[in-house]
Amino acid sequence: xxxxxxxxxxxxxxxxxxxxxxxxxxxxxxxxxxxxxxxxxxxxxxxxxxxxxxxxxxxxxxxxxxxxxxxxxxxxxxxxxxxxxxxxxxxxxxxxxxxxxxxxxxxxxxxxxxxxxxxxxxxxxxxxxxxxxxxxxxxxxxxxxxxxxxxxxxxxxxxxxxxxxxxxxxxxxxxxxxxxxxxxxxxxxxxxxxxxxxxxxxxxxxxxxxxxxxxxxxxxxxxxxxxxxxxxxxxxxxxxxxxxxxxxxxxxxxxxxxxxxxxxxxxxxxxxxxxxxxxxxxxxxxxxxxxxxxxxxxxxxxxxxxxxxxxxxxxxxxxxxxxxxxxxxxxxxxxxxxxxxxxxxxxxxxxxxxxxxxxxxxxxxxxxxxxxxxxxxxxxxxxxxxxxxxxxxxxxxxxxxxxxxxxxxxxxxxxxxxxxxxxxxxxxxxxxxxxxxxxxxxxxxxxxxxxxxxxxxxxxxxxxxxxxxxxxxxxxxxxxxxxxxxxxxxxxxxxxxxxxxxxxxxxxxxxxxxxxxxxxxxxxxxxxxxxxxxxxxxxxxxxxxxxxxxxxxxxxxxxxxxxxxxxxxxxxxxxxxxxxxxxxxxxxxxxxxxxxxxxxxxxxxxxxxxxxxxxxxxxxxxxxxxxxxxxxxxxxxxxxxxxxxxxxxxxxxxxxxxxxxxxxxxxxxxxxxxxxxxxxxxxxxxxxxxxxxxxxxxxxxxxxxxxxxxxxxxxxxxxxxxxxxxxxxxxxxxxxxxxxxxxxxxxxxxxxxxxxxxxxxxxxxxxxxxxxxxxxxxxxxxxxxxxxxxxxxxxxxxxxxxxxxxxxxxxxxxxxxxxxxxxxxxxxxxxxxxxxxxxxxxxxxxxxxxxxxxxxxxxxxxxxxxxxxxxxxxxxxxxxxxxxxxxxxxxxxxxxxxxxxxxxxxxx
Length: 908
Description:
Blueprint: H1 2-21, E1 24-27, E2 32-34, E3 40-49, E4 55-63, E5 68-70, E6 75-80, E7 85-94, E8 104-111, E9 117-126, E10 133-136, E11 141-144, E12 150-159, E13 165-172, E14 182-189, E15 194-202, H2 205-210, E16 212-221, E17 226-236, E18 240-242, H3 246-249, E19 258-267, E20 272-282, E21 288-298, E22 303-314, E23 318-327, E24 333-343, E25 348-356, E26 370-379, E27 383-393, E28 398-411, E29 415-427, E30 432-446, E31 449-458, E32 469-480, E33 483-494, E34 508-521, E35 524-539, E36 544-561, E37 566-577, E38 587-597, E39 600-608, H4 613-621, E40 631-643, E41 648-659, E42 665-677, E43 680-691, E44 698-709, E45 719-729, E46 735-737, E47 742-745, E48 748-751, E49 757-764, E50 766-772, E51 778-779, E52 783-787, E53 791-810, E54 826-831, E55 836-840, E56 846-852, E57 854-861, E58 868-870, E59 876-879, E60 885-886, E61 889-893
Parallel strand pairs: 2-9, 11-17, 18-49, 45-53, 53-60, 53-61
Antiparallel strand pairs: 1-3, 3-7, 4-6, 4-8, 5-7, 8-9, 10-12, 12-15, 13-14, 13-16, 16-17, 19-20, 19-44, 20-21, 21-22, 22-23, 23-24, 24-25, 25-26, 26-27, 27-28, 28-29, 29-30, 30-31, 31-32, 32-33, 33-34, 34-35, 35-36, 36-37, 37-38, 38-39, 39-40, 40-41, 41-42, 42-43, 43-44, 45-46, 45-49, 47-48, ...
């Protein structure tokens, strides 16, 4: 060991002496230099003559990678006097597409007269991270004709940044194609590289029936962050087609315009038949009248109840609802009544309403427990909301007047502060009580820190839902790359004084203070949170206020694999009680796990000991307190499956729980849907429940139903037919029929028949854009037709000529060092009538147009145009049929401006 130490010290001493004996020394003043946004690098190296004699030699400068191109002369002869030092400037450029993670260095070496390298120095070149991914849709329109055809979803993903990226491309398809509705492709894209994906989808019978459908493509980073989205329009090629409104093209949800009838029979339920219906009538584009109702017939009582009737009328400014309505706000009210909103401007809306508190619209007056009426406004200004409510309750013989307001006090991009206030008066036979509510919401960001609070306080006699409540919720978080640190505090106290026979039974409070740490790594995330918990609650059994203190540690791990459509999570909550004496065991915990794979999900949890005062008090109250320890085991599962070419849909939902205080409980729900036609569905629901507090408890029923989707009624719409006749017009002015040509009308695909005709029927009044799918030989410009009567539109396809060319670069030793990219450069040809045609160069720098003959201005729009000059850019060219024309572009790279600095020699 001692010998090794001596050898090491000797080596260090020898190296130091040798360095001092070198005639010259070379070094970079700083170890790292950062490339500018344009890629240029400005650095310098210093050479010193350490001897007492004149010295002459060569300084060699080089980079370790082609990604860093030198503009400085790589070999420079120098002469130094004794003690003289010299600064040599270095100019270089980082090429586009250089990898940000690559180790790029400048190296300088001193070479003596005998070609011996005396000393070297290096400097690392840093590149600013530029993360930029583009999603390009080169062919938005897709066509098919029959079963067995395939559509090609062609997608281009470009990495314009300097980092290697892992991304997921997710295709969202109609369920007629794929029962899971998504297909995911995983990609790894190097800097400055492009990837072209072709996804071929075979057409089946269900897709042919759809005629038209959309395919959405979403690009995500590997961790799920959104990048971009694009949509493909797929259409069946037909010569004749009937117009379908957007309501008909979307998937039926059976929630609005539909009629449903179902029957329920079973054990421990009453037999009933139910009719549910709803429809919309559009008087024009903005005026709509909606009607929905729900009637149920109870066979045991031989009685029918009108459970719901709702009328709603909507214009561009007014919205009115009447029937069974509800009001959510400072008071939660439900019954029969009317409410309306009127927009007096884009930023202010007035609201008013009246509710009679009953269950059914048809209830007699004596079943009403009171009524409520209100008036107010909502605004996009600082005074966001104001509402005054008058509420009458016959059962409690009380009247309430409540005024609530909400304000935006201050708002910027990184900070907002809002305030809400309520004032109430409660009048009873004995007393009058004033009440008040004060609340504040705030969110702030500063660098990596985030702060959020949602807090309010109301007096014990406040007339709103939050009567006698204090809430303080605060969250402080700091984000550092993939790490997140936080402090969370929650406090709520409920102590109302009015409308309760014994307000002590409702008094309770809870406090939680904890730390949070979270880590996110691509598909994985992990969090851990230690916290202190305190509770107070009234005990119905002992008539005393129970208190609980506990320390707990919560952890969560989750993983989401987008590529496999697989996710799972594991959570644990471990704690110990520090204050309650009624329980012999202080340890308590809950373990949970969940799994989601495509259409299947499974979850399970196990709880040991009581987790809160509510569980403990309820066990006391029902006299089921276990002398040992409370346990609770649960399993939940779901399955969604499409069968028989997606005509049948199966849904199963199962639940099982076993506790130490009750018997085992089983619940199984299942639903089978059969799609008779696109707008007609039959279904069967089955519900089964066994066990619980008694082993004999059993409930099961069967519900059988039919749903017919309705189309909204639009009496104001007048429809017309559009007929398109296609012809070829050649150079000799001869006209012939253009059969089997693909055209698009507002994005929907057609193919002309043997007579060159396309028909689009039952179209509403609108503007329709007609585009012909052009090839290398025939071309027609897009045309727009305003359809307000039956129309015939003739379109003539003209012969095309060829305009082509290529690009090249011209540069010298003084030119800017830029990436001489040939592919993907944009070229635009503009005709004398203003029609534009666009092409992009290939990887070899070549482009080609197939356009009608005429005079065109051809313009190249290159990348890095600030560093380039283009000869004859935008010059005019005449084209003729059967006479191809070439137009080449020479891109002259500009000379860079070199700043020369002179350094005075320093002698020692």
